[in-house]
Design a protein that fits this description.
Helix content: 55-70%
Order of helices and strands: EHHHHHHHHHEEHHHHHHHHEEE
Number of strands: 6
Strand order of the largest sheet: 1-3-2
Length: 382
């Protein structure tokens, strides 16, 4: 190995390339204080149990408090989850996320009575309240959603018990996240010239687009070898998740776990199956594309690590600011005000966490809630 390219620690990266989570809470102490405030709100919400039937004013008061609690809970989760996502090796971040999950479980348990109670009152009665009380007008959509799932709502006691298990039932996802983003160790990729390049969740995407085929091959194989080393553990995690999904479907009277996943969003299962059919129908197009790629690359066998290989020797150079400029050009039809909000957010207000570092989770996502920026996590390379 003649040289080595490694990822920096989170503490070593430029703050300009990270997101501004201090805009959510100025300090960890402020986050802790928000958690205590949410706990007080949860206690107040619990006091509404059995009282919604008193009429539209009581319903409105509950919904206002519930909205406030939900907004605060969203900010608490956003802060904790985003800190963890960019450095999964930091135990403080992990502990903070664990506290958040417990708080959200408490909130779910405290408000589990609400939907069963509305069912007891009668949805037609509640519908009358929303039509006669202007302040409840915004609740009509929620009421429509409740109508669709009324056969899947259990008693208040059952819903509360299920909500209390939410944190524990999140085990498979939590364990997979810790293994996938923090504990897996990957051997470095080696280029055709013997140069070593660190393989990690934040770098694998870039390595599989490297012009050097040996870099792509060793990166891809070393990345997947680490998963294969834990194949039994991963299988057990997956089986546990499947059992949880089946349990959730059965306890809420859904035909299958697929129905339980799609039903709350009013998506027919036919949409899911049709998506698969359309993809399968168009597989020959993909196969033709890959054959063309193999011919252009002049290789005997086309591998997975060749899918993203560049087809030109002219490597594009796109600085982050250039990408923002292009995005803003595309948004121009929405008006100058919209464009300036996006430009300022990306270049000044630090909406985007784009730096690559050790411990950063894989993939990319956007994460925002009421009262925060629409944060974006990604791993950027010019």
């Amino acid at each position: 190995m003649t040289e080595s390219t490694s990822l920096p620690l989170r503490s070593q990266v430029s703050i300009d390339e990270t997101w501004d989570l201090e805009s959510v809470f100025a300090s960890p102490a402020d986050w802790e204080a928000a958690g205590k405030e949410l706990t007080k709100m949860i206690t107040k919400l619990t006091a509404y149990q059995g009282k919604i039937k008193e009429g539209p004013k009581k319903l409105h008061a509950y919904l206002r408090l519930f909205d406030e609690a939900g907004t605060l809970a969203g900010k608490i989760r956003n802060y904790a989850s985003n800190y963890y996502s960019v450095d999964t090796t930091n135990q403080v971040n992990g502990a903070r996320l664990g506290q958040t999950r417990s708080l959200l479980s408490d909130l779910g348990a405290a408000t589990a009575f609400f939907e069963p109670e509305l069912m007891m009152i009668g949805l037609d009665v509640v519908d009358g309240w929303t039509r006669s009380t202007p302040e409840l007008g915004y609740f009509s959509h929620g009421l429509d959603k409740l109508r669709r799932k009324q056969t899947h709502v259990r008693s208040g006691e059952v819903e509360e018990a299920l909500a209390m298990t939410a944190d524990s039932f999140g085990g498979p996802s939590t364990i997979y996240g810790a293994l996938n983003n923090a504990d897996l160790v990957f051997k470095p990729a080696l280029s055709s010239k013997g140069a070593g390049k660190e393989v990690g969740q934040a770098s694998i995407g870039g390595l599989t687009t490297d012009p050097d085929r040996e870099t792509r091959r060793t990166a891809w194989e070393n990345y997947n070898d680490s998963y294969l080393a834990y194949k039994n553990t991963l299988a057990d995690i997956y089986i546990s998740q499947l059992k949880q999904d089946v349990f959730n479907a059965r306890t809420h009277n859904y035909e299958t776990s697929l129905h339980a996943s799609l039903g709350p969003n009013n998506v027919p299962v036919e949409v899911y199956h049709n998506l698969l059919k359309v993809f399968q129908k168009n597989l020959p197009t993909w196969h033709r594309y890959w054959r063309l790629r193999r011919e252009i690359m002049d290789v005997d066998t086309f591998h997975v690590y060749d899918i993203k290989a560049p087809l030109t020797t002219d490597k594009p150079y796109v600085p982050f600011k250039q990408a923002v400029d292009w995005i803003c050009e595309g948004l121009a039809p929405l008006g100058e005000e919209c464009v300036e909000v996006v430009r300022k957010g990306c270049l000044e207000q630090r909406w985007v966490d784009r730096v690559r570092n050790k411990g950063k989770r894989q993939g990319a996502f956007t994460s925002g809630t009421g009262g925060t920026y629409p944060f974006i996590m990604m791993s950027w390379a010019d």
